[in-house]
């Protein structure tokens, strides 16, 4: 029987879900959810109405409407106080914070952006051993006793021996009647994935550009974690040289050197070769930059690395160009020109925070 509280809770969750989906673009653009993220949930502020209520107190000292007075006199008998500022005509803001699972947040993102479920590439699967109860044995632990099979065996024995009628239909199993469930191990495929984030941290990439990358990475993580059993994440930063760092350093480091993108691609390929065999992992490199590179020669080196060493191993390679005052934006043009019809290379222009939602759809909308 469905309790009324269950119906109310379901209705409340539907309202919350609708509110999140309606304001999804705002939640993505302002990045407020990142600071509210837990291990499996995220706290989302939602508008609410504060219900007024009476507060009861003592009337020993008299109350409003008692005694003499003229219209306009202060209620407490003193001179009226002077407030600061002018009276406003806007309602106050009230917020209700609700916890939403990252899995539910991923579903909302997928529905709003119409993202297809990802189809893991070919053999890129790991297997895990699980036990399935598939048969019956004559021996086993009491916890696995199959009562129905045991009784059926005892009943057949009683009927065959002619004791069923004499005992008045009472069936008592003997040890030889006992039957137990048996299992066999099965190998179940589980798709796993690794994300390799690469970012230009040279002087032309400012705090605003890094914040855009941080927000987009949060939503990419949320979606991919809903598609795979296990996700590992690696972080690479580069200016003229590339190095692997932790998550905090990735989003806060700022250098003043030049930009050599090939150094990041070489390090990414080394990480994949060392730890993530392509036949066992789904591999997702994401590179973010403002489009500047050291030279045309290094750009040619990047294109060769992609063709020969990265694209044969990855599900898809994504490049996000974050617009900045000092970035030329040329590298995206070079990638688009070199891979005009290659589904494994996806590029996206991210002019500002409002462009994050469209960029996510471009990266994840292919289902690769």
Topology summary:
Blueprint lengths: L3 H19 L1 H7 L1 H4 L5 E7 L47 E7 H12 L12 E12 L9 H15 L1 H4 L13 E11 L1 E9 L6 H21 L2 E9 L3 E4 L1 H6 L8 H15 L6 E8 L6 H15 L6 E6 L7 H9 L6 E6 L5 H9 L4
Helix pairs in contact: 4-7, 7-12, 9-10
Quick description:
37% of the residues lie in helices and 21% in strands.
Structural notes for this entry:
- The protein is an alpha/beta fold and about 375 residues long.
- It has 3 domains: about 1-50 and about 95-115, no CATH class; about 125-185, no CATH class; about 190-365, Rossmann fold (3-Layer(aba) Sandwich), CATH 3.40.50.410.
- Helices cover about 35% and strands about 20% of the residues.
- The protein has helices spanning about 5-20, 25-30, 30-35, 100-115, 145-160, 165, 205-225, 245-250, 260-275, 295-310, 330-340, 355-365; strands at about 40-45, 95-100, 125-135, 180-190, 190-200, 230-240, 240-245, 280-290, 315-320, 345-350.
- The strands form 3 sheets. A 6-stranded mixed beta sheet has the order 7-6-5-8-9-10, sandwiched between helices. The chain has a two-stranded antiparallel sheet with strand order 1-2.
- α7 links the parallel β5 (about 190-200) and β6 (about 230-240).
- α4 packs across α7 (about 205-225) and α9 (about 260-275) packs parallel to α10 (about 295-310).
- The radius of gyration is 32 Å and the shape is flat.
- The relative contact order is 0.12.
- The model has no long low-confidence stretch (mean pLDDT about 80).
